[in-house]
Fold each of these.
Amino acid sequence: MSYLSTHFPSLILKSSLSLRKSSNFDALNSGFTNLELIALQKAWSTIEPRLRQLSTEILTDLFSEHYEIMDKIRDDDGKLCNFEVINHIYWLLLLYGTIIKHNLTPMKTRKVVEPLTVQMGKYAMDLNSINIQLDCIKKHLLAKLAFALSPTTVAAFDRLNKNIIKHIFFKIKYYAK
């Protein structure tokens, strides 16, 4: 053993931690580049004050084009759950905000997405339905940011949608077993 390894074992530990495999590193990494994260946070600071208004616009647009999604949000008696219909898009926007503001790692994102997955299961929404909703949200967010839109922002929102869908897909697959 060398003098360094005997007297300074933390140096060896640090060097071995820096050689992590990519799969371990991915669990600790948010998946966004620094530039994408800055673009998302800047975009979110512009959008956040108008979340309620934006959610109403998205709700109207989404459910007028895709009535079948709204039709799934019913209780056991077959009645439309108005509270959930009105707030569903708002909750999705808050999910976006939580992931963006806190730069969540995939492990933490999975925990944040869990209530959404439970809600989807409650209303029998499939992956296609949630994908349509997230695409509609992204379309509206990018339209609101049209004056300050960059390719980095578009790529970051694409990656954010893919991360959310990935976690939902794995959860749906898990519950299907």
Amino acid sequence: MRLFCIADSGSVLGFRLSGIETMEVRTARDAEEAFKVAFSSEGVGILVITRKAADLVRDKVNAMIYTQEVPLVLEVPSLGDKPGAESADDLLKGAIGISL
């Protein structure tokens, strides 16, 4: 099982330097193409996507976070993001309807 990352231009370098296969996206079209690559690549178990990249195709990302089993879709902050994003508890509540 391997990681695959879809990242905005400001965040892509860090993922690449850590050895994670990464596609840089700047437009919604880029993000759609990156999803096709990620989901057609054999062995991808975790799809990491930065917040700025996810915002380009927000509806699709949210649907996959809550419904896709493999690969697991994990949204992470983009380089320079400020605190205040949804907490893990908020995500769980949205996904399964309970709060911890």
